[in-house]
Amino acid sequence: MITVLFFAKYRELLGTAKISLSAADIDLTTCTVAQLKASLAERGALWRDVLAAENTLCAVNQDLAGDDTPISLGDEVAFYPPVTGG
Amino acid sequence: MSVIVRVGEADFDVGAECRALASHSRQSGAIVQFVGLMRDSNQGDDVLTMELEHYPGMTERCITEIVNRAQQRWPLFAVTVIHRVGVLQPQDQIVFVGVSAAHRLDAFQSCEFIMDYLKTEAPFWKKECTLNGEQRWVDARQTDQHARKRWQD
Questions:
Q1: For an interface test with A, which of B55, B64, B96 has the most A Cβ atoms less than 10 Å from its Cβ?
Q2: What is the dihedral sign for C-alpha A20, A25, A26, A27?
Q3: C-alpha angle A42/A46/A47, rounded to 5°?
Q4: CATH class of domain segment(s) A2-80
Q5: Domain of B113, in residue numbers
Q6: Distance from CA of B64 to the nearest CA of A (A)
Q7: Interface predicted TM-score of the whole assembly (ipTM), two decimals
Q8: DSSP summary character for residue B9
Q9: Of A9, A22, B46, B96, which has the highest C-beta tally within 10 A?
Q10: What is the pLDDT of residues B104-124, one digit of tens each?
């Protein structure tokens, strides 16, 4: 199982804060952030837009991650827009 | 070095935080503090309230990592970073960054460094509610990216 989190504008756009994916949803043997994005993008146009946006940020286990970052069983992945704190 | 990172709804007392920073070393000769407040307008609209969302866990981790980087760059005695979340009103305190060092240049620079990275890396998001009832997510500013980049040269 992997947990996927969405924050702020993306949480609102997609109507979900958290989804869980099992091995039945996605091949976790050689999974990367890019592959997870491609898999989630199949859920519809909104998902595609959010995940394909150039400024979408991704964290794996709470560390900033890139498209080629590997994802394995038990990981927590988050997608979020550029940050605006401070 | 003493590092305090606090993220939550509670407000903070700048005077108390300053005294705490000073208490960590008798060698401390400079304390620089930054306090960020909520403005009552943005992009020409009056703003009534602002809601701050964050990524619990990663936020604290990210700020701690930024403080560690500052510590590697400047000799510091103590650093305190406090960031509020939840619903805030105009003039409310949002963020506190305080550093204690032997000399002012290290204190000024490290405080700016921590703030510049916090604004561009720590996972917080602001949503504002305007006088005309509009709710909108605040966009990230290019100027914040430029401010951070000056530390990378």
A1: B55
A2: positive
A3: 45
A4: alpha beta
A5: 2-152
A6: 12
A7: 0.94
A8: S
A9: B96
A10: 999 999 999 999 999 999 999
